[in-house]
Amino acid sequence: MTQQSAHLHYSTLNEAFSLQPRHSVSRVEEYAEEHSVVFFLLKGMVEGPTLWVQAGLHGDEYDGILTCLRLMEQLPLDRLRGDVVICPIVNVSAYQAGTNESPIDSVNLNRVFGQDRSNTYSYRFGAWLAQRIIASADFLVDLHGGGKSLAVCPFAMVAGDNREAYNTALDALADTDLTAVYICDFQSKGMLINEVCRSGVPAVLLESGGGMSWREADVQRHEKSVYAILVRLHLLEDPRPEQKGKPAPLVISKIQELRFDRSGLQRSQAQAGSIVHRGETIIEVASYPDYETRKLICPVDKAIILSIHSAAQVIENGYAAMLGIIE
């Protein structure tokens, strides 16, 4: 019998934390804005910190969702020293539509935090979600991927709004196999990890994968990162021999986003995770309707491509790439 098939049922997370026995799994279905959100609470053998792991903040990013399902099935409760909250699909309306944003208000849920409040669905739902994480969690892992139209290299975003929480988050990533770590401060654009960090909860966003489906390698990379964080937070002991000689990720504090200046068809692109220099071509596009070759050029001395548009069709002023500036 899997852990999933043996779970208990509670109406709220508060109830599950209060009543659920140790060494068990529960399913909790709460409602926000008339939409149900399903959480799973995994309680280990002994008390300890609470790790919150979620995916599907953007509805077309599937690698993290599969990772959450595997964690529910495979986390060893008999070795778990603490609790893990898992929410496989946070933004249910976006997931059901297969889109990055919720179709209810066409708002990116990871851009609503710390911004001028609006009374639309995503802003209200975001406030509801953040309150639950801050009330329950000692650490947040927010799993992402490139979605339908982006390829990303395996990298992390770490919230830097609270110095103590930032240091804890950075330390928790020490044994992950990432290409880069981007330090996001309070000026970052309305992301959930910054909202949570401002309340003193360490928070990281992990990127891996992208495309219309999911890839085994990207799911496994997310899995390994979560397990590495569990070990660093002392929720699990590490049964593996110590890994030595692993290259340290690039630490990025500045990024630059690039956008297309014409619509058209993408003809070639650089790879996510590759290093580019000033003047080098990142993407080549056959523009429409004039069918001219347009090149998106690296505008900085040296950078790593954190994410890049991977779909064939490109739209004028659409997102093209995010560069992590190497100084």
UniProtKB/TrEMBL annotation:
<dbReference type="InterPro" id="IPR053138">
    <property type="entry name" value="N-alpha-Ac-DABA_deacetylase"/>
</dbReference>
<dbReference type="GO" id="GO:0046872">
    <property type="term" value="F:metal ion binding"/>
</dbReference>
<dbReference type="InterPro" id="IPR055438">
    <property type="entry name" value="AstE_AspA_cat"/>
</dbReference>
<dbReference type="GO" id="GO:0016811">
    <property type="term" value="F:hydrolase activity, acting on carbon-nitrogen (but not peptide) bonds, in linear amides"/>
</dbReference>
<keyword id="KW-0862">Zinc</keyword>
<dbReference type="InterPro" id="IPR043795">
    <property type="entry name" value="N-alpha-Ac-DABA-like"/>
</dbReference>
<dbReference type="Pfam" id="PF24827">
    <property type="entry name" value="AstE_AspA_cat"/>
</dbReference>
<dbReference type="GO" id="GO:0016788">
    <property type="term" value="F:hydrolase activity, acting on ester bonds"/>
</dbReference>
<keyword id="KW-0378">Hydrolase</keyword>
<feature type="domain" description="Succinylglutamate desuccinylase/Aspartoacylase catalytic">
    <location>
        <begin position="48"/>
        <end position="230"/>
    </location>
</feature>
<keyword id="KW-0479">Metal-binding</keyword>
<protein>
    <recommendedName>
        <fullName>Succinylglutamate desuccinylase/Aspartoacylase catalytic domain-containing protein</fullName>
    </recommendedName>
</protein>
